[in-house]
């Protein structure tokens, strides 16, 4: 009985698969290797996994209903970690259809597959972006999140609602994890740390949105992986105290749960850049710009539920995590 991990050639997915393989699990990974960013980076991440005999990789689109049905018929999965998605807040303004296909149709296909097999636990990626227009800090899963400000965020919020119906109707334990700006080695070329590093090393100016005043709860990849693995091992349970008269948005009578995974320590963008300058030994030429449409000014995760229920403790300081990224980047790109 293998674990299915979707988005396995992605930044977080490949790190999760590696960790599962190291602990002796059999894993089937799935990814469509789309060209949203350099597919050769996805191939390189995959080459780290192909050396394990307990790993099988499928090049499939989660939005392909027939192909997904066939996979859930062919393999017996005990658990599913669903990380495949069209990512990026800004790109959802340019190409909304990609989000409908991968994040809504794809998610529905995953839920159907889990129903077909009576899966023990589905863990899926949500996002801090669901907090949208919320301003009460820190962001808590016990707050309502009904005001998304990008289509990306709306699809992630929709995933949480779709999962609830399957947990309610079919008793499938589902847990949604709202990740807060994940960074680290093998990271995504469309994210700030990667783009800044590339530009600084090329002697180019870096665009600093919101004049560098954004606060982000930057979370190191190893801390995210640790959180996912801990959650996976404990299938979501119903909350016996849950009441429809005062509904808690993070739990339910159904076996359905939501958690934040963040660092619980927001950092001002300028300080993040300072950590990068320090790791590179170069001072960046900063082009200060206003905020971009769809962006949230600040993110700050309340992770108390994860700490209490899973003993989760984010352990990586931004200075250390950024230095690890720079070490990887220089080595991988030979700069
Ligand atoms: N990285 C972050 O800071 C962050 C923050 C919040 C939420 N998330 C969520 O975490 C998950 C993983 O993100 P990531 O940073 O590793 O991104 P990523 O783009 O590196 O990984 C996603 C992978 O999914 C694959 N994919 C996309 N659409 C697909 C489809 N239709 N069928 C099959 N595969 C498909 C891509 O090829 C990619 O390899 C995503 O669901 C994302 O929304 C990430």
UniProtKB/TrEMBL annotation:
Keywords, ordered alphabetically: NAD
Pfam families given in the database record: Epimerase
NAD-dependent epimerase/dehydratase domain residues: 3-238
Keyword NAD: yes
CDD domains: UDP_GE_SDE_e (cd05253)
Name of the protein described by the UniProt record: NAD-dependent epimerase
């Amino acid at each position: 009985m293998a674990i299915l991990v979707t988005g396995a050639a992605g930044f977080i997915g490949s790190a999760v698969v590696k960790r599962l393989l190291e602990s002796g699990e059999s894993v089937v990974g799935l990814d469509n290797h789309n060209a949203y960013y350099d597919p050769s980076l996805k191939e390189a991440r995959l080459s780290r996994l192909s050396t394990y005999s307990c790993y099988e990789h499928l090049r499939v689109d989660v939005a392909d209903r027939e192909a997904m049905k066939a996979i859930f018929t062919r393999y017996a999965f005990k658990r599913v970690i669903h990380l495949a998605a069209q990512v990026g807040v800004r790109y959802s303004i340019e190409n909304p259809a990609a989000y409908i296909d991968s994040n809504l149709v794809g998610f529905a296909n995953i839920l159907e597959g889990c129903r077909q097999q009576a899966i023990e636990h589905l863990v899926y990626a949500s996002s801090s972006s669901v907090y949208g227009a919320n301003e009460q800090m820190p962001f808590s899963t016990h707050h309502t999140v009904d005001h998304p400000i990008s289509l990306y965020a709306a699809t992630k919020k929709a995933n949480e609602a779709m999962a609830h119906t399957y947990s309610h109707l079919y008793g499938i334990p589902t847990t949604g994890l709202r990740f807060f700006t994940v960074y680290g080695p093998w990271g995504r070329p469309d994210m700030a740390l990667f783009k800044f590093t590339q530009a600084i090393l090329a002697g180019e100016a870096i665009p600093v949105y919101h004049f560098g005043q954004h606060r982000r709860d930057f979370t190191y990849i190893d801390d995210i992986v640790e959180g996912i693995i801990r959650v996976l091992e404990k299938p979501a349970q119903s909350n016996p105290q849950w009441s429809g008269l005062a509904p808690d948005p993070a739990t339910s009578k159904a076996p359905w749960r939501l958690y934040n995974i963040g660092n619980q320590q927001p950092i001002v963008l300028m300080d993040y850049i300072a950590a990068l300058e320090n790791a590179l030994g170069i001072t960046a030429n900063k082009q200060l710009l206003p905020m971009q449409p769809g962006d949230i000014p600040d993110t700050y995760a309340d992770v108390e539920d994860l700490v209490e229920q899973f003993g989760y403790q984010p352990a990586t300081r931004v200075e250390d995590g950024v230095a690890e990224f720079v070490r990887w980047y220089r080595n991988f790109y030979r700069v």
